[in-house]
Specification:
Elements (H helix, E strand, L loop, with lengths): L9 E10 L2 E11 L3 E6 L6 H8 L7 E6 L2 E2 L5 H6 L2 E4 L11 H6 L13 H15 L14 H14 L4 E5 L7 H16 L3 E5 L3 H7 L2 E6 L2 E7 L5 H9 L17 E10 L3 E9 L3 E5 L6 H8 L7 E6 L2 E2 L5 H6 L2 E4 L3 H5 L6 H5 L4 H4 E2 L2 E2 L1 H14 L16 H13 L5 E5 L7 H16 L3 E5 L3 H7 L2 E6 L2 E7 L5 H8 L2 H5 L1
Parallel strand pairs: 3-8, 3-9, 6-7, 7-8, 13-20, 13-21, 16-19, 19-20
Antiparallel strand pairs: 1-2, 1-4, 4-5, 9-10, 11-12, 11-14, 14-15, 17-18, 21-22
Helix pairs in contact: 4-5, 14-15
């Protein structure tokens, strides 16, 4: 049967969702077909989450048409959506940690034997059969506590299969996964597609959309823009649809005058993590730190900033030795640090945008131990305006912001200290294309003003597009130092997988 003859499992047509006078989705449209992986793409705030919540029965649309297998539906609860065969796999699933893997899959519907007793052996056997179908090795008897995010997601997929789900929606599933875990997840997704399931995949990563999906639907500002076959489109076309303009230069690298050495790292070693790491960074320079997940890049950055201890080696800032393991001394010396995990390490999610932005300034704003709230508000407002943080109020909790705006708040917090050296770890992870371009432009502007930047990124185009020089790590060892001209994708990846040099 051709796609023209096939009937979509799910159709959402011209759906509208309002919250009071606020229109979260003005025209939501998507059709999901069996045996297909369909991407849903768009910037933060495009309406993707609202559309997913309508499909999941969390939100009820104010207008539009919603059909499952050609029949109009109106889900009042998530349970009704699940009963119709729609399952959502979230980025970080919520499990019962004290229950076993099998119990989490079958909770509330465990198989029973005589006198209504739970048949644990049958439940474990059923779970093992699900994992065999997915071609993964997870012990059904083990507690859910301690499972990796990747295995938690697979557990949720197994649960969906056990419910005879016809549609699987995967919402940013790869954000916290390693390269190996991503490929395993993709292999499972392809297998489910080949078995006739309809999958919807939400991601900001273009390489994932083009590497996994068959079709893509774009949303912008809460409205449907286009649907394209992946084989018949290109990344520039998708970017144009997503942001409403052509992003000719996703990596706006400005010319900057490279000055004197401002940071010197010599023989930095932490046993079992990294060893003999040495390099220099100059004012106005963006030094890219590349490598595969687990190469030790983030750990080196944390050691320079004084967050983690070192066993040997030295760090000099502007020619003066920096006391290891002292974050306060690092900040006073002119270092700033945007960590990889903004939610857990970069922000206090329950407090306001204002308080988060001013966290690094509290000692400067305090007098006799009391914070001048007026000066705090002024400082926060200044940096929020400079970085164009989109928020209804400075007093809103930072948890209410989109991922891109949360990242801007972390940047604002550190830029408010006027750093001379800025370390940014995965600066654009989990944010949309348009915001990525803004962050890149900001980093380039800072370098042009003389700030030295160390940029850690797992996205090779970002490393190649933004760096003046690239340092490559493999298994805790620096395996290559490349100029901008030498830093090709092939050269970086060769050094990133140079296990022989790392072992020597």
């Amino acid at each position: 049967m051709t796609r023209e003859e096939a009937q979509p499992v799910v159709s959402l047509r011209h759906a509208v969702k309002k919250f009071g006078n606020f229109v979260a989705m003005g025209d939501g449209c998507i059709e999901l077909y069996p045996g297909e992986i369909h991407a849903l793409a768009g910037e933060n705030g495009a309406g993707k989450s609202t559309l997913v919540k309508v499909l999941a029965g969390i939100h009820q649309p104010n207008a539009g048409e919603f059909l499952v297998d050609g029949t109009p539906v109106s889900f009042k609860t998530p349970a009704e959506s699940k009963a119709a065969g729609i399952s959502v796999i979230y980025q970080e699933p919520t499990l019962f940690p004290d229950l076993s893997v099998a119990e989490n899959i079958y909770i509330g519907r465990q198989p029973t034997r005589g006198l209504g007793m739970i048949d644990h052996a049958q439940m474990r056997a059923d779970a093992a059969e699900l994992f065999a179908r997915l071609e993964v090795d997870i012990d059904p008897s083990r507690p859910a506590e301690g499972l990796s995010i990747a295995d938690q997601q697979i557990l949720e997929i197994a649960k969906a299969i056990s419910l005879d789900a016809k549609v699987l929606i995967m919402d940013e599933p790869t954000a916290a996964l390693s390269g190996h875990e991503v490929e395993r997840l993709f292999s499972i997704a392809r297998g489910l597609r080949d078995q006739g399931a309809a999958l919807m995949f939400i991601s900001h990563r273009m390489e994932e959309i083009f590497g996994l999906c068959d079709r893509v639907t774009i949303m912008r500002d809460g409205r449907y823009v286009s649907t394209r076959m992946i084989a018949e489109t290109s990344e520039p076309e998708l970017v144009r649809d997503m942001v409403g303009r052509s992003v000719d230069q996703l990596f706006p690298k400005l010319d900057a005058e490279i000055g004197d050495v401002v940071l010197s790292v010599d023989g930095l070693t932490r046993t079992g993590v990294f060893r003999d790491v040495s390099f220099e960074v100059r004012s106005g320079e963006i030094l890219g730190l590349a490598g595969l997940v687990g190469a030790g890049r983030s750990e080196v950055a944390r050691a320079i900033m004084g967050v983690d201890r070192i066993d040997s080696g030295s760090i000099e800032v502007f020619g003066k030795k920096l006391r290891p393991g002292d974050t306060t001394a690092a900040i006073r010396a002119g270092l700033g640090f945007v960590p990889e995990d903004r939610r857990k390490q970069g922000l206090v999610m329950d407090i306001s945008v204002l308080r988060n932005t001013a966290l690094t300034l509290r000692s400067r704003l305090a007098r006799f131990g009391i914070i001048d709230s007026r000066k705090e508000a002024q400082a926060a407002a200044e940096w929020s305006e400079r970085l164009e943080v989109k928020t209804a109020s400075q007093y809103e909790p930072v948890s209410s912001l989109s991922g891109g705006n949360q990242q801007k708040v972390v940047l604002a917090k550190w830029l408010a200290t006027n750093p001379r050296i800025l370390i940014v770890d995965e600066p654009t992870r989990g944010i949309d294309v348009g915001t990525k371009s803004e962050v890149h432009r900001l980093l380039s502007t800072l370098a042009q003003s003389g700030v030295a930047i160390i940029m850690i990124s797992s996205e090779l185009p970002e490393i190649l597009g933004m760096s003046d020089r690239v340092l490559v790590m493999c298994e805790g060892v620096v395996t290559a130092e490349l100029t901008r001209d030498e830093a090709t994708a092939e050269n970086v990846m060769t050094a990133a997988t140079d296990h022989a040099k790392a072992a020597s």
